[in-house]
Design goal:
Length: 128
Amino acid sequence: MRRLLVPTLLAVALAGCSGVSSGDDPSARSGIRGVVTAGPQCPVVVQGSPCPDRPWSGVVRVTNPDGDTVGEVETDAQGGFSIDLEPGSYEVLPVTGGGRPPTVSPEAVEVDVDTFTEVTLVVDTGIR
């Protein structure tokens, strides 16, 4: 019995030591989930030859109303992300380095209690 108790307690203690979560905690109750795409991908879209936006890989930053960063998370291969947050008002945006394309605009997001707010963010590639 003791041999099982010590490793179990150690695992529980280590699990509680994590800081901002990237959405891997199944017990998390609120936050933001979404997907980031980059587009347009083609200079001219021709009917019958679609040119869909592509998943974007990089860091998504979340700030509070004062502009302070409250969390950052990497997107996955499909551009998806999830970040656990307390209920409140936030701005979320992909981090691109600013200036010339690609460009982004921050998205205002309200996180409610016991809910993950779904967002879709678009990185403008500047291709026209």
